[in-house]
TrEMBL record:
Residues the entry annotates as binding Mg(2+): 299, 434
Keyword Hydrolase included in the entry's annotation: no
Enzyme Commission code: 5.4.4.2
Gene Ontology biological-process annotations: menaquinone biosynthetic process; salicylic acid biosynthetic process
Known role: Catalyzes the conversion of chorismate to isochorismate.
Cofactor(s), names only, from the UniProt record: Mg(2+)
One MF term in the entry's GO annotations: magnesium ion binding
Protein name in the entry: Isochorismate synthase MenF
Protein family per UniProt: Belongs to the isochorismate synthase family.
The keyword Transit peptide appears for this protein: no
Organism of origin: Anoxybacillus ayderensis
The encoding gene: menF
Pathway linked to the protein: Quinol/quinone metabolism; menaquinone biosynthesis; Quinol/quinone metabolism; 1,4-dihydroxy-2-naphthoate biosynthesis; 1,4-dihydroxy-2-naphthoate from chorismate: step 1/7
Cited Pfam families: Chorismate_bind
């Protein structure tokens, strides 16, 4: 099925390629296409090379298919942020751009110094991709960007045609859990007690400890179905998926790391949690309790203080509300303080990410000691969990979320991750319960249910 815009994109590409630049990026306006159908349309041709992103308002959605170029870093230090930035600048400088321009999507490992698990082997210290096909939906408008490095027209035409085959609604999904294991449960409890000892001895003030659930299912996990459930069930979260080889990192995170739009930037402090109530009255009472609870307010205050300080170093006009409010997701409510600022001249989105990661909502406080403590006592490899994931446009704008409430999928298996902020008066059992609530969004989406 060849439509008007498919012809248009091919014609524009034909002209653009005459410019003999390293990469050609052409964007055309297209009609209404559901981003998830587009993701599903890439299943055969681009399996292992797809990504999906939608922001927490579900107003800005990106779907990438295929790899025009890939930026990878195995650098174990902060240099990885600059390596990625440099490689991206070179690509943008060498590109011929017609229309919106290319963007890249990808993420970073939480702590490249602690890499051990085989299941994370497809996910390096940093990896970003410039897709061959990028669908962008903002509000009611949709664009298709085609990025070409070395591709024949015949191949391109074939690919484009295959992407516009209309897919039926993604319907219900029948899978059963055949195995469920709480990975290193006892060692996690031990780590929490160890952390509270360190805090009480004054060694450290806060540390976030994560645990892992391993699940295997009766059938291969269908990534489009999981995204569809997440999109339906978590309307206030960033929805993301990043395929790499046979693995896919996927999730629905309520936590923004940073957004840059020209000179303006936003970030958010999200820490301190309680479940949702069964009735409106109970929900309201739980929320009020959370707003006043000392232990949760401490967890939250570390994040606000660190982010405020980091922002003052690279921004001006930093606005931080004096009191947190509640951010209510389907299963959980959090203490939430949004932050806005004006970025100083020359500060890129990469420097913002480098400065902020990991905030005390994911690492702890002080930062270096917290990361070292996690490295020493947490019984798992976080891989890309709790690390920055997001996009950067050729114009320097971009947005990153913190990849929590997430899972790593391979075939019929899933590794789920959830953590909690440990402070002086943390009770191991309540922290354990808190992580159980944080597992729920992914569990529900994987099981395909509607609880
Ligand atoms: C580390 C996670 O959550 C963080 C974000 C919000 C609230 C948190 C908390 O209350 O402990 C955590 O700091 C996770 O979901 O895996
Ligand atoms: Mg907590």
């Amino acid at each position: 099925m060849v439509t008007l815009y498919q012809n248009k994109v091919i014609d524009q590409l034909r002209d653009a390629l005459k410019k003999k630049k390293h990469m050609v990026s052409v964007t055309v306006r297209v009609g209404q296409i559901d981003p998830l159908s587009f993701f599903a349309a890439g299943e055969t041709l681009f399996h292992g090379q797809r990504f999906y992103w939608s922001d927490c308002f579900h107003e800005h959605t990106l779907v990438g298919l295929g790899h025009a170029q890939v930026i990878k870093s195995e650098e174990k230090t902060k240099k990885r942020f600059r390596e990625v930035e440099k490689a991206w600048q070179q690509i943008v400088e060498g590109a011929f751009i017609e229309g919106e321009g290319p963007l890249m999507f990808g993420g970073f490992a939480f702590d490249p110094m602690k890499r051990s698990a085989e299941h994370w082997s497809h996910f390096p210290s940093a990896q970003f991709v410039i897709p061959k096909f990028l669908l962008t939906k903002r509000g009611e408008e949709t664009w298709l960007t085609v990025n070409v490095v070395h591709e024949s027209f015949a191949e391109l035409e074939k690919m484009i045609d295959s992407l516009f085959i209309i897919h039926d609604e993604i319907d219900s999904y029948d899978v059963e859990v055949v195995e469920k294991e709480e990975v290193a449960r006892d060692r996690w409890f031990h780590a929490v007690r160890h952390a509270t000892d360190l805090i009480q001895d004054g060694e450290i003030e806060k540390v976030v400890l994560a645990r892992e659930l391993f699940l295997s299912f009766s059938h291969r996990i269908d990534r489009s179905h999981v995204l569809c459930s997440l999109r339906e069930q978590q309307p206030m979260s960033y929805i993301f998926a990043f395929e790499n080889g046979s693995s896919c990192f996927i999730g629905a995170s309520p936590e923004q790391l940073v957004k840059k739009n020209g000179y303006m930037c936003e970030t958010a402090c999200l820490a301190g949690s309680i479940r949702r109530g069964h009735t409106m009255k109970e929900d309201e009472e739980l929320g009020q309790w959370l707003l006043k609870d000392d232990k949760n307010r401490r967890e939250h205050a570390f994040v606000v203080d660190m982010i405020e300080q980091a922002m003052h170093e690279i921004c001006t006009e930093v606005i931080v509300p004096s009191e947190p409010t509640l951010l209510k997701m389907r299963h959980i409510q959090h203490l939430y303080t949004p932050v806005q600022a004006k970025i100083k001249e020359g500060v890129s989105i990469f420097s913002l990410v480098e400065r902020l990661h990991p905030t005390p909502a994911l690492g702890g406080f002080p930062k270096q000691k917290a990361v070292q403590t996690i490295r020493d006592i947490e019984p798992l490899d976080r891989g890309w969990y709790a690390a920055p994931i997001g996009w950067v446009h050729a114009n320097g704008n971009g947005e990153f979320a913190v990849a929590i409430r997430s899972a790593l999928l391979e075939d019929n298996e899933a590794h789920l991750f959830a953590g909690c902020g440990i402070v002086a008066h943390s009770d191991p059992l309540s922290e354990y319960e808190e992580t159980n609530v944080k597992f729920k969004p992914m569990l529900l989406a994987l099981e395909g249910g509607r609880r």
